[in-house]
Amino acid sequence: MTTRKFSVVFAATLAFFALALLLTSTYAVTQTEKVLFSFQGKKRSFPAGHLIFDAAGNLYGTTGEGGAYGDGSVFELSPTPDGGWTEQVLHSFNFTNGQYPYANLIFDSVGNLYGTTLRGGAHANGTVFELLPKVGGGWTEKVLHNFSATGTEGTSPFTNLIFDAAGNLYGTAYSGGDVACVTDNGGACGTVFELSPTGAGDWTLRVLHRFKGTDGAYPVAGVIFDAFGNLYGTTSGGGPSLLNQLGTVFELSPTASGTWAEKVLHHFKTADDGNQPFAGLIFDATGNLYGTTPYGGDGAGSNGTVFELSPTATGDWIEKVLYSFITAADGAVPYAGLIRDAAGNLYGTTSLGGANHYGTVFELSPTGVGKWTERVLRSFNGADGNDPQADLTMDTVGNLYGTTVEGGAHRDGTVFEITR
User: Fold this and answer.
1) pLDDT digits (tens, 9 = 90+) for 338-368
2) pTM reported for the whole predicted model
3) Cα–Cα distance for residue pair 98/42, rounded to 1 Å
4) Domain boundaries of the chain, sorted by first residue
5) 61 in Cβ contact with 52 (< 8 Å)
6) Strand ranges for 147-217 from DSSP E
7) DSSP character string of 206-228
8) Does 14-419 carry CATH code 2.130.10.10?
9) Which residues 6+ apart lie within 8 Å of 202 measured at CB?
10) Count of other CB atoms within 10 angstroms of residue 109
């Protein structure tokens, strides 16, 4: 299985995300890109997560490395009257309270931030944390959960988190769980978990599902809800046999007994339909799911795909590859997930490819005859960033924001904006 440091993320404040999805955004042929911030050295580096806005227009994100102790940070970018942006580190991780926050953040209704760290914490298996703003400025970090030393509840949460209406948090852990899991590279295959507040300031973790290998393994991305309370996500590995370990799309449904039942909606069978999905999923208005795979697809390049899963009347799901990244010029290896505007256009990034081989921002538009057209909105050139791995964020007027994990003025990553 191919592994690398990355993050995918699929969460923002629910209100802002809903507003962004209502936009009808058609981009001009020529885009204007602006680097809002270049990260530098040990102090902060490797911004692999998705960005989120607050109501005042400030951006928040994480760096998987850097910070005061080299273990990662949470940062805020604030617009200035002269059109610039000012960066502030809100929190530096120190291993004890978490290490390597590669995933993005989410807000609750009162402005607290939540996220995960891949490593660190009391048992070195990762954490779920909360950042609370202090009166007069500054933020206080609280570890809500340290993943256990046994690993049975999961380890190494790359994931972004989501809330339900009751205030419970949901996410995935990349490894740990069922020690009897069978895959082509061995080891426990990961979990889906729920974290619930107790009312006394503590939180309780419950494992909703432990992957067995045949039903998926190694979930990198988080999960999303449908209107009925079912959860959907992807695994980067696993499949029906050791000869088919290309990843899955799954559904988890709550049962009357309080447990959750898993159903595999699609297992990636061949290189042509994509493989090893690292990113999460999104819905359209009619209940179709969309996602990306960084590898596979038509053509010799095997540079990744954008896919759609559609439900049928019989309860099955049909997968369709909407686009295969065939040549390096149109992008390659899309680790990030997608966002969608109200016109049905999809937007994402590829970590490689483009005119300069440093990655792209792309738009995928339906043609009305069952086909989709891809357009490269930006080819990164190194100076403005290199290797974008996170989902994009759209503001209320249709501008796109994102991060690159390398490149920029100091070669340690950037935050960028693409305007209409």
Assistant:
1) 999 989 999 999 999 999 999 999 999 999 8
2) 0.91
3) 17
4) 14-419
5) yes
6) 162-163, 169-173, 191-197, 203-210
7) EEEEE--BTTBB---S--EE-TT
8) yes
9) none
10) 10
